[in-house]
Design goal:
The protein has 386 residues and is an alpha+beta fold. It contains 13 helices and 17 strands. The protein has three domains: 1-109 and 286-294, no CATH class; 111-280, Aminopeptidase (3-Layer(aba) Sandwich), CATH 3.40.630.30; 307-386, no CATH class.
Length: 386
């Protein structure tokens, strides 16, 4: 049922032949240097991107309707005409995204992180990050949190109104994918369950679990707003732990942890990663396409703060632009924080502090180093998608 709705949504997006073309100028976030950006594609998303790009007021130089099918021409023109642009961004649904393919760095709108469960429970726990096995499990015990499985309509309504919707809007803003209440009820009643986390006799968090044979998905989740921070943090740990335990007890091979932004710095990505997950570039209704036109201070500041996962022939590749010189030890520390099963590789770009660059013996598996001080065209080196 959920996949059917995804297919319907994809068809609906594909029928939206017209999108927006917006050109905006302001001071780049984190650099306080002038930045000019053009956005193409689905309407309503630039307002979410703007706070990630600009600091302070933004001047719109252009806003008009445009046909999504011609977006690729903007990327072709960008090779010939500067137009004063620093960054070209497109957000396009299928099938229009395929027209842009190869002309820009493609980022899936979302990724899914999945935990492998077809093994003994002790092996599942062993796949957790060390800090998760100590800190998170201890917090669940400390507050005596307990799981409760239900399909009761009043429980679903309470979860939807007090946990799921506020949590989704707080975390994702305009990009939040919020199902209608009737859709959540249909999922739970037909092939799912609602898992609630109880603290002192009351539900303080929960998630929707939907199974399809041996695969279970953790879909909507949330924690009530009025909890003390320490209890809210423990409740979130309880949601993931109890969902894993429940899926494993049901004999599921995998548990999918819903949608995540494809950014290795993103806190949600790193939180899910610590539960032993792997990245999957599953069904995507749309994609972002990024084409830096310059490699000035403002563009670099944006790329430093947003190390996206890009599609490549080898799979998903994270491109991490470093803000300053780095030595081998610090490179290792950063790589440990970003790498994950399911990434083809993590590419670091920067200037090495030590005259001796990291050798293959120094590098972690599927981590590569690119020294920008050795090239006359840093922009071209960074934007390679091989």
């Amino acid at each position: 049922m959920r996949r059917l709705r995804q297919l319907r949504n994809t068809a609906r997006l594909a029928m939206e032949a017209r999108g927006e073309r917006i050109t905006a100028r302001g001071m780049g976030l984190g650099s306080r240097q002038p930045l000019t950006v053009r956005y193409l594609g689905l309407p309503g998303y630039f307002e979410h991107l703007a706070p990630r790009l600009f600091e302070g007021s933004v001047e719109e130089l252009e806003r008009e309707s445009a046909w999504n099918g011609l977006a690729f021409r903007q990327f072709e023109d960008s090779k010939m005409h500067k137009e004063g642009l620093d960054l070209l961004i497109a957000h396009l649904p299928r099938p229009y995204g395929h027209l842009v393919g190869g002309r820009a760095l493609e980022v899936p709108c979302w990724i899914i992180q999945k935990a492998q469960l077809d093994r003994p429970w002790d092996d599942v726990v062993a796949s957790f990050r060390k800090n998760t096995r100590t800190t998170d499990l201890r917090k669940v015990r400390k507050y005596s949190l307990t799981p409760h499985i239900t399909r009761d309509l009043s429980d679903i309504r309470d979860f939807y109104d007090r946990m799921y919707v506020p949590h989704a809007k707080r975390r994702f803003g305009p990009l939040s994918v919020v199902d209608d209440f009737d859709e959540v009820v249909e999922d739970v009643k037909s092939r799912g369950e609602l898992l609630l986390v109880h603290y002192e006799g009351a539900a303080v968090g929960g998630c929707e679990l939907v199974s399809d044979g041996q695969y279970m998905q953790l879909l909507s989740l949330g924690v009530v707003d009025e909890l003390p921070p320490s209890v809210a943090d423990a409740a979130l740990s309880g949601i993931y732990l109890f969902a894993l335990q429940h899926a494993h007890a049901r004999g599921c091979r995998e548990l999918g942890f819903a949608l995540t932004l494809p950014n290795v710095k993103d806190g949600i990505y790193r939180y899910k990663r610590k539960w032993g997950t792997a990245i999957h570039d599953d069904f995507s209704e749309s994609s972002f396409f990024w084409q830096p036109r310059t490699f000035g201070v403002a563009v670099q500041a944006f790329l430093v703060e947003h190390p996206w996962m890009y599609r490549s022939p080898a799979g998903l590749v994270a491109k991490v632009l470093l803000p300053g010189p780095i030595d081998s030890r610090e490179l290792h520390r950063l790589a440990e924080g970003y790498i994950s099963p399911g990434l083809a590789r993590v590419e670091f770009y920067g200037h090495h502090a030590d005259p001796r660059p990291p050798s293959n013996r120094d590098a972690l598996p599927y981590v590569t180093w690119h020294d920008l001080s050795t090239t006359d065209d840093a922009l071209r080196l960074f934007c390679r998608a091989d």
